[in-house]
Amino acid sequence: MPTAQSFWDKAAEKYAASPIKDMDAYEATLARVRAHLNAGDAVLEIGCGTGTTALKLADTGADITATDISEKMIAIAEGKRAAAGVSTVRFRQATLDNHGLGERAFDVALSFNLLHLVGDVPAALREIGKLLKPGGLFISKTACLTDSMGYLKLILPVMRLFGKAPDTVHFFRTEDLDRMIEAAGFELIETGYYPEKTRSRFIVARKR
């Protein structure tokens, strides 16, 4: 069985070439993120993929460290960064259980389309809390698949057989996701759906 890293390494080039499916929802998400970022903020993006979001948020003046489990995703992100001439974004391969980033180092942590793919979600949320300064923000968007795409449970085994889906995919309900984030020591201060039809849950949560 392939590891998570090998799955995403294999998917990296196709992922990088795929257009964003709903640009309006993506831009709406970016606008809400920008509303919470300040120039000089130390920002961590977890699961940055090929770096598009981190590079788009560089205009906030935040100092962004963007990480991903996939070495090939990071290599593509570095190429984009160099082409754009952006100096306030750094990319590195890292995981939440092996990151070397220290504790209480960041004002804001970002995680988009990741939590439903993490093996131990409560442990991941606790680690994110450790990385944030007191009062720091965790901003995420997560597919709540039970609310919108429950039928995927039936076809995931076949997709995995052909290498088209990762080993771990959680089927959250919105209320379950909210409770897990609160249980990890966060207070929810903003929520929304971008896009509404797919129930992709946008959350801004403050570390207590």
Question: What kind of sheet is the major sheet?
Answer: 7 strands, mixed
CATH superfamily label:
Vaccinia Virus protein VP39
Q: Using the alpha-carbon principal axes, give the shape.
A: globular
Q: How many discrete domains?
A: 1
Order of helices and strands: HHEHEHEEHEHHHEE
| Unreliable runs | none
- Main CATH class: Alpha Beta
Count of beta strands: 7
Strand sequence of the main sheet, in spatial order? 3-2-1-4-5-7-6
Q: What is the helix tally?
A: 8
The CATH architecture designation is 3-Layer(aba) Sandwich
Per the CATH scheme, the topology name is Rossmann fold
The level of helicity is 25-40%
Gap between N and C termini, in Å? 39 Å
Percent range for β-strand residues: 15-25%
Global Rg = 16 Å
Mean pLDDT: 93
- Which class do the helix and strand fractions yield? alpha/beta
Give the secondary structure arrangement, pairings included.
Layout (H helix, E strand, L loop, with lengths): L3 H14 L5 H12 L7 E5 L5 H5 L6 E6 L2 H14 L4 E5 L12 E7 L8 H11 E12 L1 H4 L3 H10 L12 H10 L2 E8 L6 E8 L1
Parallel strand pairs: 1-2, 1-4, 2-3, 4-5
Antiparallel strand pairs: 5-7, 6-7
Helix pairs in contact: 1-4
Quick structural gist:
With 208 residues, the chain is α/β, with parallel strands linked by helices. It contains eight helices and seven strands, in the order H-H-E-H-E-H-E-E-H-E-H-H-H-E-E.
